[in-house]
Write a structure and sequence with these properties.
This protein has helices at residues 21-24, 47-51; strands at 2-6, 28-34, 42-44, 54-55, 61-66, 80-89, 92-93, 100-103. It is mainly beta. The protein is elongated and about 70 Å long.
Amino acid sequence: MKISFNTVLDWDDAASTPIAAPDLATAKYTVFVDTVNPPVQNYPVPSTNLTAATTNADGSKRVTIDAVADLKLTLIPNATYYVALQDSVKDILSAETAVLTFVNTIAPKPPGNPSVA
């Protein structure tokens, strides 16, 4: 399961006031992944994922996290997962995003060693 999001650029006020660059540099992100809704288990987004993020046209960054490789989660086959994100700038927490749903569906492998005579 790969989770992607855009980093924050503005404060959540009526004017969408831009966040100062030094404050953006210290922003922290948390991903909530769980089999219950709303998700409770939370994991900090690794700094390596933030560093590797690609820059969008508006200056935000597109961050991608692999739940297994980056967060060390073991996904249960055919389980439903609920995912939300939250950020923190200057130790001020944002609201959580809307909860996304992911079903870890695993299909069987195709039949092996086919032949035609």
